[in-house]
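To the wet lab folks,

You asked to see what we're planning to order before we commit. Fair enough. Below is the target structure as tokens, and below that is the sequence we designed to fit it. If anything looks off to you, flag it before the synthesis order goes out.
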């Protein structure tokens, strides 16, 4: 395949609330209500999402995971951490969310990619990156993004497999912060259409990139880091959802 025969890369288009089913809209409204409640109790306590994750962690260093040992849910096999490494702009840092191997159904298979130049975690050590959430300097979410394999050292599952895992992500305990864990679990519900769009677009970008670089392991190509990103606003998206009938 040459660059001349590549199909055009699909445009990454933000979802429209009116295109969703009533059942999906209701579920997202409920998630939004839980997020708003998290903001309410945290504001009353004079704290925010990022501050809670960094609390008691010492000096904040770029690339270091916070909390220092990541956050795991042994029941759902969900995992997340917060870090920063993209200087400039309005982003303070971002959350990476994952599902670990024991929580991934056995029928879901990693991509068969013979050009892989680095080992991909498998079996009990398999790990699927779901989505990253960019946070602003005030501790509120500003965007979502998907990324290449080398960024998170993940196992690579095709888009539809990753999308099927989204409902499994939940952090159902109080460490390091109950409001943060409730907030993060519900962010993946409230912005599910955005996340699905980013994951499908991720695979389209990877396919396109492989066509441009047919002899390379594109999953380890440092020139391809972020495959797509969308700006988000909890208030604006909820306003769009709540403006719909029913």
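Sequence we intend to order:
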């Amino acid at each position: 395949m040459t660059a001349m025969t590549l199909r055009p890369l699909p445009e990454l288009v933000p979802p429209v609330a009116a295109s969703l089913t009533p059942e999906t809209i209701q579920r997202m409204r409920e998630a939004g209500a839980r997020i708003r409640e998290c903001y309410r109790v945290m504001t009353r306590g004079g704290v925010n999402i990022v501050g809670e994750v960094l609390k008691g962690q010492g000096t904040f260093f770029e690339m270091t995971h916070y909390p220092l040992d990541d956050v795991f849910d042994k029941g759902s096999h969900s995992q997340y951490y917060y870090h920063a490494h993209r200087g400039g702009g309005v982003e303070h840092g971002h959350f990476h969310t994952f599902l670990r191997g024991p929580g991934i159904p056995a029928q879901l298979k990693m991509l068969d990619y013979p050009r892989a130049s680095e080992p991909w975690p498998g079996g009990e050590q398999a790990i699927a990156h779901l989505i990253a959430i960019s946070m602003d300097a005030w501790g509120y979410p500003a965007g979502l993004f998907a990324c290449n394999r080398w960024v998170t050292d993940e196992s690579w599952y095709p888009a539809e497999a990753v999308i099927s895992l989204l409902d499994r992500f939940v952090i159902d305990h109080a460490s390091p912060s109950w409001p943060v864990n409730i907030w993060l679990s519900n962010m993946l519900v409230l912005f599910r259409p955005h996340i699905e769009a980013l994951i499908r677009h991720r695979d389209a970008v990877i396919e396109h990139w492989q066509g441009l670089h047919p002899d390379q392991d594109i999953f380890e190509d440092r020139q391809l880091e972020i495959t797509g990103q969308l700006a988000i606003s909890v208030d604006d998206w909820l306003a769009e959802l709540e403006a719909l009938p029913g």
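Structural context that might help your review: Residues 27-242 form one domain. DSSP finds seven helices and six strands in the chain.

Thanks,
Computational group
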